[in-house]
């Protein structure tokens, strides 16, 4: 196994300059034209076979190892968020109102570094690495678009990997769950229709605000009283709009929010209780409810054997590090889940905060920034994990488990 830890450190200036360039020029989902152009240029300069325009602005590149073997897909997301940056960094966003506030600039730079390192060691690889640079991870369905465009075929992908820098933990921490890693998410819209009227004669109206207030309270009972105490779910009402003035009962209330779960059975239970609770309260109070539910992402579930191998690689590579296998579950959601629904794989986290340097604002915060020493750590672990998995006959391992 090459010494990827020191090779990634040797490439630190490259990784950092790429990351800072992407950070200064952030692009929203499906608009990553500049970013994708740089990615394609860098991959082409390595002599890889590069395909642009996959699933919109996605880029795919193939690296053939010297020996035959399985195909491992490794993904980075390229999109930024509609947030006005307040970091004051020298490399802060030059695109007003758009910001790399989730760390996807780092992911893109890390994956380019991984491509460089693995390309230099292609003689030692048994199999193919498929690099996937995806657009629009932040709730716009970039992964699904690339799947529809065939990113998992030709050659067919056996295993998939991705990472996320993680500002909830400091540099040094590595999180690799061997089961559920991130929640599945649904978005809901609820309209409660009553009958408007004068605020002074409520008996002649049907008040949708009172019914909706009861609904908001009752929905909290689903997690508290229907989901088993050792299982997890979240139901959050996040917008509530009604009325125009102080003396008019409005005709309707509109609410939106999100539901997060891991287990399919818990998801089914929560959705069933959600619909029943809303309809019965609305009807009991003389209103009518209309519910729209939309799935944002399924749960991100790691493949047990693959995750175990990545954990072992992390412990060998960073003997001094905390490799956390238990506290890595988050109720956030991840587009990579669509890939893990189709092929086994592993999604892991690299601690990236450094409170002493003031680099500990949370993801999606206007002052979000990472300690860049996390970048070579992520690149080294990803390159080492891919090399280990390709050379360990993971395909036999997967077959064993299926039989
Ligand atoms: Zn994000
Ligand atoms: Zn993210």
Summed up, what is this model?
Helix content is 35%, strand content 27%. By secondary structure, it is an alpha/beta fold. The strands form four sheets. Strands 1-2-4-3-5-16-6-15 form an eight-stranded mixed sheet, sandwiched between helices. A four-stranded antiparallel sheet has the order 10-12-8-13, covered by helices on one side.
Walk me through this protein's architecture.
It is elongated and about 80 Å long. It contains eleven helices and 16 strands. The two termini are 30 Å apart. The chain is an alpha/beta fold and 403 residues long. The protein has helices at residues 4-10, 12-24, 33-45, 104-120, 142-148, 208-225, 264-284, 304-317, 337-342, 374-391, 394-402; strands at residues 49-54, 58-64, 67-77, 126-134, 159-170, 173-175, 180-182, 184-193, 197-198, 233-242, 248-249, 252-261, 288-297, 300-301, 322-324, 345-353. Strand 1 and strand 2 (58-64) form a beta hairpin. One zinc ion binds next to loops.
Explain the layout of strands and helices.
Blueprint: H1 4-10, H2 12-24, H3 33-45, E1 49-54, E2 58-64, E3 67-77, H4 104-120, E4 126-134, H5 142-148, E5 159-170, E6 173-175, E7 180-182, E8 184-193, E9 197-198, H6 208-225, E10 233-242, E11 248-249, E12 252-261, H7 264-284, E13 288-297, E14 300-301, H8 304-317, E15 322-324, H9 337-342, E16 345-353, H10 374-391, H11 394-402
Helix pairs in contact: 1-10, 2-4, 4-10, 6-7, 8-10
The structure holds zinc ion (ZN) (2 copies).
One zinc ion binds next to loops.
**Strand percentage:** 25-35%
The residue fraction in helices comes out at 25-40%
What characteristic shape results from the CA principal axes? elongated
- Poorly predicted runs are none
> Structural class, from helix and strand content?
alpha/beta
Described by strand count, sense and barrel closure, the largest sheet is: 8 strands, mixed
The neighbouring-strand order within the major sheet is 1-2-4-3-5-16-6-15
The hetero molecules present are:
zinc ion
